[in-house]
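Ops channel
N.P.: pipeline sanity check, posting one input/output pair.
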């Protein structure tokens, strides 16, 4: 069983328009609603891959019902805690004429202390937590330190956590020493508080969380794939060129591919390949329809992996990491 935890799930609404024009009625060509949020997306991809998964988190109101119904009807395991507020809806607008996507993420509802405690109890009571993915933005009334608490509880129970969040939440979660994190380039740059303009700069930034106790950093680089950085191994997984329809959910799909492969007993190099293939498979589907098992399996043989030499940390040496 792979558990996912999403504190602030969302019902993702995707809208297709030709182009947004001011002061006229813009006609919607097509629209779809999908259950979303980091862990929810991970559970969706795990299910298409055939893994057992259980999505934890908070839902409320009519949108919460819609989200839960979407998962249940698709056969995706979930065990949400009900809150008084209304689950948020995030909006994705695709302007077809200029092929651009705008993403508007809501803050989401507050979570009552009793609901928060119920979730902590659920995680504390897991008999054999195995792999867990935890992530996404925080409900507005929760302190980022809640991520550290959840990660510590899960790992004290013997679980292995892959954590995916941004900003203050990412910083706080790292203090809980998750096994792995998956920042994208923007999130990594924000984490180390400097621009990252070359592979050397990205590599050096991705090594910083290792000093804080994270074992694996998966720095996702959009069309350039994923850099896997650990103390004794640096790998660059590169996807094939594909026709991209949508990139929302690509990061979550990559997380799902990685933990799926680990749960199947594969090593981190193979897990990196699954991560890249799953992320890229999702970019080939429109809206927030995520990659399907057949897309992922077809992409796996097309993912290249380059081994990058570990930087020489002896005094006076320049960083020898080479560009791929
Ligand atoms: N334009 C693209 N072409 C091919 N693969 C992509 C593209 N964008 C994303 N991906 C795949 O999805 C993964 C995650 O995407 P990324 O945009 O880095 O994450 P996030 O959604 O978290 O910002 C990438 O590492 C890559 O494998
Ligand atoms: O919790 P946040 O940071 O607002 O993000 C939630 C949004 O991100 C998604 O989980 C997609 O994330 P990725 O594009 O990073 O994979 C959407 O389903 C959801 O609307």
């Amino acid at each position: 069983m792979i558990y996912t935890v999403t504190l602030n799930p969302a019902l993702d609404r995707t809208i297709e328009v030709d182009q947004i024009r001011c002061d006229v009625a813009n006609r919607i060509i097509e629209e779809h609603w999908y259950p979303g949020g980091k862990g929810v997306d991970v559970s969706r991809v795990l299910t298409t891959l055939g893994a057992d998964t259980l999505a934890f988190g908070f839902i409320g109101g009519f949108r919460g019902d819609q989200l839960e119904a979407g998962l249940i009807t698709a056969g995706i395991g979930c065990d949400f805690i009900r809150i008084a507020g209304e689950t948020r809806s995030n909006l994705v607008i695709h302007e077809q004429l200029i092929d651009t996507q705008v993403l508007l993420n809501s803050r989401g509802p507050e979570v009552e202390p009793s609901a928060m405690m119920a979730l902590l109890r659920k995680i504390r009571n897991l008999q054999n937590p195995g792999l867990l993915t935890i992530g996404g933005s925080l409900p507005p009334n929760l302190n980022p330190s809640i991520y550290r608490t959840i990660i510590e509880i899960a790992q004290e129970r013997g679980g292995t956590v892959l954590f995916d969040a941004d900003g203050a939440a990412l910083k706080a979660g790292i203090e809980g020493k998750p096994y792995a994190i998956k920042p994208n380039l923007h999130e990594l740059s924000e984490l180390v508080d400097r621009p990252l303009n070359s592979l050397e700069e990205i590599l050096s930034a991705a090594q910083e969380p290792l000093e804080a106790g994270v074992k694996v950093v998966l720095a996702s680089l959009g069309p350039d794939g994923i850099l896997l950085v650990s103390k004794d191994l640096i790998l660059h997984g590169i996807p094939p060129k594909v026709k991209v329809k949508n990139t929302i959910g690509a990061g979550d799909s990559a997380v799902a591919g990685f933990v799926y492969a680990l749960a199947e007993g594969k090593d981190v190099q193979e897990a990196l390949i699954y991560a890249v293939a799953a992320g890229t498979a999702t970019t080939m589907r429109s809206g927030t329809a995520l990659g399907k098992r057949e897309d992922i399996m077809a992409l796996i043989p097309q993912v290249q992996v380059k081994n990058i030499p570990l930087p020489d940390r002896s005094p006076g040496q320049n960083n020898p990491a080479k560009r791929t």
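N.P.: looks fine end to end. Residues 2-307 form a domain with the UDP-N-acetylmuramoyl-L-alanine:D-glutamate ligase fold (CATH 3.40.1190.20).
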